[in-house]
Amino acid sequence: MKLIRIPVALALVLFVAACVTINVYFPAEAAEKAADRIIQDVYGEVPDVQTDPVEPQTRRPMQQALPVGIALLNLLVTPAHAKADISVNTPAIQQLKASMEKRHRKLEPSYTSGAIGMTQNGELAMRDQKLVPMQERNSLKSLLSKENQDRSALYKEIAKANGHPEWETEIRNTFAKRWVGNAPSGWWYQNKQGAWKQK
Question: Which pTM does this prediction carry?
Fold first, then answer.
């Protein structure tokens, strides 16, 4: 009888060990560093980064687990935590970044004048079209549209490149904060309520 109990106990221990829940947290700090590298390349300079006017984002767990007996196993076994890094070195990401760098030279005067600003969702918007000569407005609107398409594609591509497409919203929120954090004084941005503020 004892000989039967040992293999059964061993099998049970191996089953429990195999069913440990792994909580993969969105790596907010690594995402901010990756965003800063990309944004500073787009801006073409390494500015004096000032305190971010937007509140920091809280980390949210992303659970990946086997469906059988998770509730019971979580009572028996302490969940393990895995830390992830953010990779931004894919050809698609590099191509988007290069396109944004080139476009930034055309957008920079509109940032400086206050005609455009950074939105709370990590995109750009026309803030005051009266600051843009009538004959240049359509051209600027076209640039903004292309920039916003590239930014959305960038956030999606970074999440995908890191094997977590569900992180797209967190990536977007991180970039929204870091675009403002890396911007020079005088540029405009929207706060969480959507009101325009000057940095």
Answer: 0.71
Residue identified by tokens 């937007």 is: 54
For residue 132, give the amino acid letter: V
* Dist. CA 78–CA 93, nearest whole Å: 37
CA proximity to 20, closest of 84, 79, 69: 79
CA distance 118 to 127: 9
CA R_g for the chain: 23
pLDDT in tens, the chain (199 residues): 555 566 555 555 555 445 544 456 899 999 999 999 999 999 986 545 444 444 434 444 444 444 444 444 444 444 444 445 688 899 999 999 999 999 999 999 999 999 999 999 999 999 999 999 999 999 999 999 999 999 999 999 999 999 999 999 999 999 999 999 999 999 999 999 999 999 9
3-state SS assignment for residue 16: helix
Q: Rounded distance, CA 32 to CA 47, Å? A: 15
Count CB neighbours of 29 within 10 A. 11
For residues 44, 47, 51, 57, the Cα torsion angle rounded to the nearest 10 degrees is 20
Question: Is 117 within 8 Å of 124 (Cβ atoms)?
Answer: yes
